[in-house]
Write a structure and sequence with these properties.
Length: 360
């Protein structure tokens, strides 16, 4: 461990212990700091009541503790909450809290985290893709989203905690592999959030080396692949990355992933008028034959400036039947937070448009 002012949110318990030893503090301080930050949601050194002021000052001399700041929080009619966070350098990212009802007895509380500011992949229907790539998030900025949401929610609900994580927010996690994996490992730690890898799912636009790396580095984690189409000609126009990793290469990697991990994959299809056809269903069935897979159909969320249009409900249902008839399992995913622009990158886009109009 070296370097000035490391972000405490991006360090494991073992690393914090090492920092303490280097700073001349007892090893158990590392565990205390880790618990304060990762489990108890301390937003300030002063919150750490069992650590002496002198030791807190020494730690603050080496480590930065700064959670992403909630700039906007929107609550949907269905309870989905969307957070727009401002980072230390002024960039903004989004996190989305789903399924939260406050009923602890049956609550599964899912949080969707961002991995990058913007995205280089540039999918046609995606608001994040439309803004281009700005930068990677650090591991501390990834865990920090969860810590900041937790701190915010605990103001009204002292027992709040997220039970499930999906890495499906802004950006392509597999283009920020090391920080994404580091963040997942930290959130998995027993004395922190203790969220099992089986309760985490990562979504990729189809970065093949990342799929194989995940199989090795985090075989327990769920994998979702944003397929969107069953033919290269259509997928090329929706997900430009398809030119680099075309469907045959991508589905080979998925088969390899299933073989190595013994796990079923999820395929996501943002349904558009062009993709919800009988011909596409046939192509998908041929492509996925024999693969342990579940297909999530998500009628595309309309995004300003995008040409992707959502199909009618009847068309979406017919598409699902065309898949199940061919032996695939598919569900039309209930939409979450449509009224608050919950699709990836939409809130930031709207906020920026609003700022621009205000300033002009
Ligand atoms: N970059 C990764 C993860 C973030 S995007 C990926 O592409 O998989 C998470 C999911 O949201 C992807 O399946 C993506 O296709 C979907 N998505 C993005 N914009 C959408 C929109 N406007 N409507 C519906 N789904 C959308
Ligand atoms: Fe990037 Fe995913 Fe959006 Fe495509 S859908 S532009 S990969 S964030």
């Amino acid at each position: 461990m070296s370097g000035d002012h490391m972000d405490v949110c991006g360090l494991s318990e073992a690393e914090l212990t090492a920092v303490c030893l280097e700073t001349g503090l007892p090893a158990y301080r590392g565990r205390q700091v880790f618990e304060w930050v990762q489990r108890l949601g301390a937003a300030d050194w002063a919150d750490m009541k069992n650590i002496s002021r002198a030791d807190r000052e020494k730690l603050a001399g080496r480590l930065t503790l700064r959670l992403p700041a909630p700039e906007r929080v929107r609550v949907s009619r269905d309870g989905t909450r969307k957070f727009l966070f401002r980072l230390a350098d002024g960039e903004t990212i989004e996190s989305v809290l789903m399924d939260y009802s406050g009923d602890r007895s049956r609550d599964r509380v899912t949080l969707c985290l961002s991995a990058q500011v913007g995205c280089a992949v540039g999918c046609r229907f995606c608001a994040t893709g439309r803004m281009g790539f700005r930068r990677d998030l650090s591991a501390g900025e990834i865990t920090g989203q969860l810590l900041a949401v937790t701190a915010y929610m605990r103001r009204a609900d002292a027992d709040f905690r997220a039970t499930n994580l999906v890495f499906m927010g802004m950006g392509e996690p597999f283009y920020n592999m090391e920080s994404f994996l580091r963040a997942a490992r930290i959130l998995n730690e027993e004395r922190g959030q203790n969220i099992g890898a089986r309760r985490m799912t990562v979504s990729t636009a189809g970065v093949v080396p990342g799929i194989l790396r995940l199989a090795e580095a985090a075989p327990q984690m769920g994998l979702a692949v944003s397929l969107h189409a069953g033919t290269d000609d259509l997928r090329d126009t929706l997900v430009p990355l398809n030119r680099k990793y075309p469907l045959a290469v991508l589905t080979d990697a998925c088969r390899e992933y299933a073989r190595r991990t013994g796990r079923r994959l999820t395929f996501e299809i943002a349904l558009t008028r062009e993709s919800a056809t009988e011909a596409q269903a046939r192509a998908l069935a041929a492509l996925l034959r024999g693969m342990p897979a579940h297909i999530n159909l998500i009628p595309v969320n309309p995004v300003a400036g995008s040409t992707a249009e959502r199909p009618t409900a009847a068309r979406a249902a017919a598409f699902r039947r065309a898949l199940t008839k061919r032996g695939l399992t598919a569900t039309i995913r209930a939409e979450k937070g449509v009224d608050i622009e919950a699709a990836c990158g939409q809130l930031r886009q709207e906020f920026n448009d609003f700022q621009r109009n205000k300033n002009s």
